[in-house]
Design goal:
Chain lengths: ~60, ~170
Amino acid sequence: MISRIILIISIFLTIAYATLMERKILGFRQSRKGPEVVGMVGLLQPFSDGIKLLTKREIL
Amino acid sequence: MLIIPSLILFCMVIFWLPITTRMVYMNLGCLYLLAVGSLAGISVLAVGWYGGRSYSFMGGLRAAAQMISYEVVLSFFFLLFCSIDWSLNLFSLTFYWRGLIIGINLIFFLWLVVVIAETNRAPFDIREGESELVSGFNTEYSSVLFAILFIGEYGIIAGYRLLTSYFFFGW
């Protein structure tokens, strides 16, 4: 049970940091810096994106 | 209301099961992964239909068309992997591939192209299509529903990433 919870949490962390890595690589490819305001070098950017998304209003 | 968008999340979770848990010893692992992959394509179509606009339905049709058509090539890759020892077991597959590391590199780039097209990433992103349709099927979804779609899509991409390292580089 505990191992399944750890598995799910690490899958979500993988997804969050995969999006961060994608944005960083796309940024460096176009000689930008990518997200780097939230956290140290943008390390907390996925969580702020998720919190912002979850506090939005739900249409449909 | 939450059911149709969470189909993709469900696909992501059952895609991750045989490559991270004890289900890797399952006898029909490759068949299971193929079935889950085509279920992801169909659930994209269902999500586009559930948006309720004809625009997002067309976007879903387009995404599902690409995912289904590249599913065929992916299934031929699985046939190639499984024809080494004529079993569909994922666990025995990686043992055999680890010994053949020279032959792997020849088809690694073909596999890369097929997987990128299957997950609709950058060179093959006719699903996203930033210039004409802004990722079609999920235009009608807002906060929690969009988060679920996003997590599911990126989770399937990360699952294919793990599967690639499993097939071509050992664990």
